Each structure stands twice: as structure tokens, then as C-alpha cells.
Amino acid sequence: MNEGANLSHLSESDQPRMVDVSQKAVTTRTAVATCVVRLGSELLSSMSVGELKNKKGPVLHTAILAGIQGTKLTSQLIPLCHPLPLDSSQVEIAPLDSHSLLVTCTARTTGKTGVEMEALTGASVAALTLYDMCKSANPAIVISDLKLAKKTGGKSDYLSPA
To answer: Which of 50, 88, 123, 136 could be cross-linked to 108 through a Cys-Cys bond (beta carbons 3.0 to 4.6 Å apart)?
Structure first.
């Protein structure tokens, strides 16, 4: 962050506020967030046909549904987020290496404010669901590297450095 940069959620008197987006243009806005879930090679090796199953049910499918639900509930979790009508929410979970999964959440809206927080929330809720469903097999699961990978629409686009 640039020193002296204005924090949009603070008023001139340094009080929290919801940003006024009434003068912004309506555009299609897309955000992609990612995170890594290190399950461990033993647990990941039990994955077959794109799914990991345990006593709680289909792990990946459940995490995908939880991530989508997370995007839809973001404004209820993050106090200053605008409630957004989502045009699309998609969560993908794929092996990253022999011990980790990559969670990718893409959120899209047509509106006056971006969907970065929805994408970040979706990725993190999916990751937390993976943890919840697999913790009995491996309580040492690590969730890391949550980040905004890309955003388009609005005032500026963003692409995370590799």
C-alpha cells in the first residue's frame, strides 16, 4: 500500500463507513481468488475420479458448494461489504502437487462495485470446509496463500504477480 493512501472505508473523521458507490458506473466485474490447502500426501493419495470421500460424504463437492454459498453471504460476514447480486460464482478444487489442493473461486457481477471480497470469501470458505471434512484424518492440514489472483472491471484491472 502506498504511504498516505486513502482508506476508502474511513470517513474524513476516521470513522468506519460503507463506501458510497452511487456515482460509479455499472460494469461487468470479475474477481478470481486462490488459496492452497495442504492435506498431506497420504490423504490426497486416496483421491479417485476427481473426488475425495470420507464418512462425512464427498469432500470436494461439499467444499465447492460451501465456497459458492460463501460468495453469496459475504456481505453478512464482512461488515462494510455491499450486498451484491452475483451473476456467477464458481469454485474449482484441483491437485496442486502430491500433498496440496489449489482452491480457485471466480465471482462475477454486473454492478457498481467489485467482487474481490466475494471471491476471497468463497475460496476461504471452501478451504475451511476441506479442513473440516478432513481434520479427523489429518489435524495438521494447513491453509495458506489466500490471495486475489485477478480482477477485471471497474476503475482498474489487476493481475497478481506469479
So the answer is: 88
